[in-house]
Amino acid sequence: MKFAKTLLATATAAGLMAAPIAAQAAPARAASPVADSEELAGQPFILYAALAAFAVGMVILLASDDSDEAPEPVSP
């Protein structure tokens, strides 16, 4: 029991000593040139706009209820 308690105390002390080292800030990232910042991950904007327009069109197509069948009568 005494060995486990000593081992636990040693591990706790080592963790507390290592915590400030792990909490240090990482080096700052370099800024990208303005010309490269307007491009979305190397893909042109028109591709994303076309995909968004296609998705909106599919939602409208699926949401519209244009069935050729006559609706069921509500009252007899």
Note the beta-strand portion: under 5%
Query: What separation lies between the terminal Cα atoms?
Result: 85 Å
Report the radius of gyration as a whole number of Å: 31 Å
Shape: elongated
**Biggest sheet descriptor:** none
Spell the H/E element sequence. HHH
What is the helix tally?
Answer: 3
Total number of beta strands: 0
Share of helix, binned: 55-70%
Point out poorly predicted stretches. none
**Which structural class matches the secondary elements?**
mainly alpha
Overall mean confidence score, pLDDT: 74
What does this structure look like?
This protein is mostly helical. It has a domain at 40-64. It is 58% helix and 0% strand. The protein is built from 3 helices and no strands. It has helices at 2-22, 34-37, 45-63. The chain is elongated and about 85 Å long. The mean pLDDT is 74. Keywords: Membrane, Signal, Transmembrane, Transmembrane helix. Residues 1-25 form the signal peptide. The chain crosses the membrane at residues 46-63.
